[in-house]
Amino acid sequence: MKTYQEINKEIIDKWVTDGWEWGKLISHEDYINAKKGEWNVLLTPTVFVPHEWLGNLEGKKILGLASGGGQQMPIFNALGAECTVIDNSSKQIENELILAKRERYKIEAIEGDISKKLPFDDESFDIVFHPVSNCYVEDVLHIFREAYRVLKKDGILLSGLNNEINYIVDTDEKEIIWGMPFNPLKNETAREFLNKQNGGIQFSHNMTEQIGGQLKAGFTLVDIYEDTNGSGRLHDLNIKTYIATKSVKL
């Protein structure tokens, strides 16, 4: 029987093959513009990460945590960072390598499962960039503890977090139909629902788990902003379904 991680790997690979928004390479023009100082990156669907959250990236070591796909790491490379990315999707890793070859830069791109211990030494990175992805992992505290471990002192964790709202509503986002937590490993109805949607195995995580989890791991929360889905009824009603956080290892 396949693990949920194996199922998600296959599903996301298929999404990327089918043209998934978060698996599309940035253009050559975007890369060149970043070298000129004109750039933006996303942790959540629509709101760009404030530039001051990242600061001067020249010579910084950045880990893209479940951040494959050739979208953020190329920008950081263009800004002078030394980039490493780990992602469970072989297609997302393939995209990183394709783009690095196209733009002639080096990146360490690792196909790996972030629900397991990360294959990096303690205090290896200055920044961990973690876009929305922990909804595909059952235990998010493990992710934050691993991010804390691999960050240097004063290192920064930037995270995109999916709140519970997306998991309480039906497909049309008109009715509340699910109780929390949403966990298809423990709820067969939820599993069947995701199967019909070709949605892989997803988990709701509340703010106690996600922001509280960062604090329990040892981080200090220093900034935050919210975002919508970017489309759909919840977005039209300006209901915020994502949170981005900046935390520091002091």
Quick take:
The protein is an alpha/beta fold. 33% of the residues lie in helices and 19% in strands.
Q: How would you describe what is shown here?
A:
The protein is an alpha/beta fold and 250 residues long. 33% of the residues lie in helices and 19% in strands. It has helices at 4-17, 28-35, 51-54, 73-78, 90-103, 140-150, 188-197, 207-217, 232-236, and strands at 61-65, 82-87, 108-111, 125-130, 151-162, 220-227, 242-248. The protein has a seven-stranded mixed sheet, sandwiched between helices. Helix 6 runs parallel beside helix 8 (207-217).
* Low-confidence residue ranges: none
Pattern of helices and strands = HHHEHEHEEHEHHEHE
Distance between the amino and carboxyl termini? 42 Å
Beta content comes to 15-25%
Task: Provide key terms for this protein.
7-stranded mixed β-sheet; globular; 250 residues; alpha/beta
Give a topology summary.
Elements: H1 4-17, H2 28-35, H3 51-54, E1 61-65, H4 73-78, E2 82-87, H5 90-103, E3 108-111, E4 125-130, H6 140-150, E5 151-162, H7 188-197, H8 207-217, E6 220-227, H9 232-236, E7 242-248
Parallel strand pairs: 1-2, 1-4, 2-3, 4-5
Antiparallel strand pairs: 5-7, 6-7
Helix pairs in contact: 6-8
